[in-house]
Amino acid sequence: NVNVDGVITARSTKGTNESLINLASANKDMNLNSVKADGRVILLADDINNKATDSKPTYSILNRSKEPDTINIEGTGISVIAGKDIGEQGKKVTFRQNGVSDIFDGDSATNPHVPDYTSKNNQGVDMLAIRDINVKGMDGDNGEKMDTNVCAMISRTGNIDAQFSGNTYIREITADKNIDLVTNGKNLYIENLGLVPSYPNDYYGPNENVIPDEVRITALDLGSYWDEGEAPHYQHAADSTVVIKNGRIDGTTAGRPYQQDLNIKADNVYAGGYYFNMGKHRGEDGKSTVTPDGSTNPIKNPEGEDISIRVEAVRPEDVEAAGGNGDNQTSPNDDGRNYYYGGSEQGDDPDYDVDGDPIPDEDKGGEDDDDNLVVPTEPTEPEPTEPTAPTEPTEDTTPTEPTEDTTPTEPTEDTTPTEPTEDTTPTEPTEDTTPTIDTTPTEPSISDDDVGKLTWVQRKDVSDGVPVIDKRQYMRFDLVSEADMVEFESDSGADAILNISRGGVQLSHHKSLKVGDVIPVKVKYGDLEINANVKIVSASDVKAGGEFIDLDQATANKLLYLNLMLDETANYAEANMKPIENSIHIQ
Question: Strands (DSSP E) along 278-365, which ranges?
Fold first, then answer.
């Protein structure tokens, strides 16, 4: 624990990934120069006596490096929690995750990417802030693009502005306002956008209503170039890919001529049930195209409606905004790429626009056109109403001058912020259930598998009167050692339960579960029996994540008790517990 006004530099270099840095800034901003471990880095800044709330932020984790190229946080696993902000606009917190490799199985941009990270990368990056998250991933010392495996990023009341160095996998990300993501690498795969099925309760409480208003995503594939000598495959040409498997955005459903709340720039995009072909795989006419594709699920707003999506081709200004070289590249250059022009198959739409402005026909397909595609292709029209029959007038029908302009006007929005009502009555902290131990300092013992969790507990320590803040997580439990005691039943399409938490379960299935399904589950652990309903919030062809719904107090208490029993006996795992087979035979 630290409580300093100055700048922090820390090293833990044991030479293996067992080294650890775990720092909590008590009642001060954490001003970082450089914090580096061969293993994990765990950072927290908060008021440890009165933890931050959404309406009362506390302390930030900030970039105060002494040199411009300094990496603020470096390790194989990174977990950062701030009661206020992580980084600032114009001075992002820089980070580098080491040891991530082979995130994607295969590299064919014309087929949806399959992340293969779970068996190869058991550590990840977690970031949670009450307000804004502003971070930047740094390249390797030799200039190579560094891959990143993100477990979760959550901004409870603010924005996320994150730039990544190389290929990036994001399991869950959400913010209350806007999300802006850029990768200099080739691939960006998002499992859950605006959804946090693994973290229904983070360090600061429930987050199911944290939904972004607008999202902008860019994949650049810097270092690519167009070499005519490589025809016809052009293996080094730009071929970036964005995949959004599941999503929820508080966005519009209308197509053109309106602007969209999800904007993506890449050479290939799989999102919302579509494939957008923006790059080198275009047809002979050179136009960008969009086709239905079942590899991703519809992206919906809170009302359950499919939102509108705009996809654009990458342009020089996008590369320059990320700090790269905007020139069209015909030979190797780590900071640049080549570009694709030719127009959009939607260019004949009378409402076709570039950034909201009409574009002359003679400019379509040229450098001033971003070849954009929008789904749906038609604006949402109001339902027609039946005309009412005319009635005989009963008064003088002589026309009179109107006294008021009845032309509809745009609604005005009340922008006066209102402070949310806050209960200031102090509450007693939940009693720590950790067994009493000798307080003599010992070497930290943290399982490699508990990385990527955002739940912490506080324990009081008499030394210096500063509470010790330890990282503990209850989100998912490894039941390998308990498999003989756990029984699972569900009269649904679930084959087995993969893991369980106080907030939900992960299930295996064979294309039988989809987002929005509500299924009953029954879990028995010894004499403890739990019956609950689970709502599926994310799904692939073989796995589904669900959250418990409609819990009565007795069932919630049983789940808490189950977690406490597992806490005593199980090592925590990220996602790879032994499956418990469904004892109800599924035809």
Answer: 289-292, 299-300, 309-312, 353-354, 357-358
Closest CA to 206 of 511, 547, 440: 547
CA atoms of 369 and 376, how far apart (whole Å): 20
Query: Could you check whether the bond before residue 376 is cis, i.e. omega within 30 degrees of 0?
Result: yes
Please determine, for residue 443, whether its predicted confidence score (pLDDT) is greater than 80: no
Q: At 561, phi and psi to the nearest 5?
A: -65, -40
Q: What is the pTM of this model?
A: 0.68
Instruction: Give the model's pLDDT for residue 412.
Output: 40
| b/e per residue 385-420 (b: at least 16 CB within 10 A) | eeeeeeeeeeeeeeeeeeeeeeeeeeeeeeeeeeee
Q: Which of 280, 164, 299 is nearest to 227 (CA)?
A: 280
Dist CA 494 CA 501 (whole Å)? 17
How far from 386 is each of 320, 346, 383, 390, 393, CA to CA, in Å?
54, 33, 10, 12, 21
**Location of structure tokens 């052009």:** 234
Closest by CA position to 303, among listed 197, 378, 380, 355: 380
pLDDT score of 477: 46
Computed over every residue of the chain, the mean pLDDT equals 79
Distance CA 67, CA 14 (A): 25
Identify the pLDDT of residue 382: 42
What digits encode the pLDDT tens for the residues 73-86?
999 999 999 999 99
3-class DSSP state for residue 86? strand
Contact 189, 168 (CB under 8 A): yes
Residue 414 pLDDT > 90: no
**Weakest-pLDDT range from 16-30, 57-71, 226-240, 414-428:** 414-428
In this structure, what token pair is assigned to residue 85?
Answer: 């902000």
Distance CA 337, CA 237 (A): 8
Residue 507's pLDDT band (cuts 50, 70, 90): confident
Q: Please check the confidence at residue 128 and state whether its pLDDT lies above 50.
A: yes
> Residue 331 pLDDT more than 70?
yes
User: Which residues make beta-bridge pairs with 354?
Assistant: 357
Cβ(514)–Cβ(484) below 8 Å: no
Q: Is 189:166 a contact under the CB 8 Å cutoff?
A: no
The dihedral built from the CA positions of residue 482, 475, 170 and 537, taken in this order, carries a sign that is positive
The Cβ-side half-sphere exposure at 353, using a 13 Å CA radius, reads 14
Residues in the chain: 587
**Residue 27 φ/ψ, nearest 5 degrees:** 65, 30
Token look-up 């990270």 returns 117
Residue given tokens 């869950």 in the structure block? 172
